Structure formats: structure tokens, C-alpha cells
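Recap for those who missed Tuesday's class. We walked through two folding examples back to back. For each one, the amino acid string is listed first and its predicted C-alpha cells come directly after. Nothing is annotated here on purpose, so try labeling regions yourself before you check the end of the notes.
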Amino acid sequence: MTRLLLALTLLLSLTAARADERILDWQSDIHVRPDSTLEVIETLRVRAEGEQIRRGLLRDFPTRYVDRHGRRVVTGFEVVSVRRDHEENLSICDGVVLWYGAGNELWLRAKLREVQKSAAFGRKKPITAKAVLVAPPDNPNKGRFRTHEAIVVNQRGTFDPAAMQPFLSQLQAG
């Protein structure tokens, strides 16, 4: 069965009725290690339509605080699995859809380069189908956006699922 990574899972759940944007599930597993370091694993399921949640979610971790003895403490942390999950997804997917919404073109070009470099993440074969879905909010640059790296699906107005047919055909032919 074809595994398909859509950079926007929302694409599959769009309906004519507007659903509310919200966090559907949030689980945090926190492990205190013998050396006093913490391992925090958070798993989130989100319903997003690009209205309030446009570029993901922001987490804030305090790295400066005053301890119970009044001493200033500065600590750091390392984000590991978000990147690792992204690289794993690019190593196993058959198709990628990049959602070009509120982000700028520099961000989009960086994501296209990551897709190009997916072989470095352990891919055995090229990604079958790649698309950039150009979505609201509109701006003049989006109307002129072109690339040879992916199918460009212009959906700057109301989303029409039929516009994804070239991408789906390429994926099925893969």
C-alpha cells in the first residue's frame, strides 16, 4: 500500500463546513534520569485550517530561573525528535505536499531543498510525487511562484479537491 506523507494532513479532512481549529489531544511523558536530566516526549493531534494555527505550535521552555536558594540558574535543552521524525517521514513517504500558506517563499524553498536531500535520510528510491499547494493568504509573489521541483497547485481561493488530481495521478503511477 502506498504510504503518503502530506505535509498537511488537513488536506484530507477538508469539508465544506468550517471546522474549529484546536488541539484534539496532547500527551506529555516526562522521565527524570538518574543524572537529573529530563526526557520529555510530547505527542499532539491538532485540527488546523490555517486560520489561527498557521505554522505549527510554539512551545516555551524556561531556561533561566532562580532556584529555592535564590541562585540564578541557566540551563539548556536539545530538541531531538521533531527533526528526527521529520527526517524519518521524508525517508519513508511516497509523496509530499508542501502547504504554502502564511509562510514566505524563502521558507518554502528551504522545504523544497529538504525534500531534494531526502536521500541523505536513508531513502532507497526517489519520492514519487511532490506538490506545492499555494493557499491563502494571497500575495503577489504567490501568483508568480514556479518551480521545477514539484507540481504547483494554485488554491489561493476556495479549496477544490479536484486540483490535487495531477499529484494523485503521479503518486498512483509511481
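Example two. Treat it independently of the first, because the proteins are unrelated.
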Amino acid sequence: MTVVRESGGQVWDDQTLLEWDPAHFRLFVGDLAGEVTDETLFKAFSRYPTLVKARVVRDKKTGKSRGYGFVSFSTPDDFLKSWKEMNGKYIGSHPIKLRKATTELKPKVVTHKSLEMKKRFSPYEVAKAEGEGRNWKELKKKERKHNRLIGLHRVGNGNS
């Protein structure tokens, strides 16, 4: 089970998204200061009783904060209340910006072979192999055609 992600013509599976309950209500927390940790973020939102999880996104190689994170709530009331009350508040040395998280958390069973095929023939990889320029609009058209041909669809578009 995995979540297949696509962006910029690239395809990858993201096991970290399996840690989040799709039934929960998630906020994107932007403009986080570099010193903010998962614990600091959780503590900042802890006055909302249905807070479930807080995570600062970090660079895999350096371990440094990428300047954003996510918090999740089990009820829509605390989700909306925290959004209204915490937007623009300081966590660490920066005021934060909150938005509704837009990543679809729809895990699906994908065989390793089909995922590798999707990656191998993604528009980005094809363009790289053929030495094409970075015309992403044209690459997206190729990607949609490719997905239809091999029977894979974007996660979250309602197709399975």
C-alpha cells in the first residue's frame, strides 16, 4: 500500500503520507522558522483538544526544515477554529500562514512493477532521455496520454 505522487512530470511513491489518517482535517502550516520542531508545532496548536498530529517537513539529505509543515485534527470544529485563530501568529521567530492541506490521502495498492513502469515512462524521464527542453505543458499532455495507455491514473481524481 502506498500513495503515488506526481509533480513536475515526475512520479514517486510517498510512504510518509500513510502516517496521516485520511478522515482527519489537515492544515498546511507555511513560513515556519528553521528552529521549529514537530514538538514545538504540536505545542503551539495543543490548546485545540482534537489535535492529533503535527509534523515539520524536513529535507531528507540535510535534515533541515523546509519551512512548512502540517497539523491534523479529528473534528472540523477545531480545524476551522485553529485556522481562524492561529493564522498569522508567531511560532518561533516567524508568523505562520495557514491553508487547508490539498494533498489527497488516498492510499492504493500498486504493484512495484506498475509503479516502476509509470516512473520510467513519466514525461520527465522521457524528456530527459530524449534531450527535450522543459516544455511542461507538452510534457503534461504526454503524461496524460501515457497514463491512459498503461491504465494508471492520478491519485485523488476518482479513478482507480
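Answers for example two:
The helical segments are 38-45, 76-86, 112-120, 123-130, 136-150.
The longest helix spans residues 136-150.
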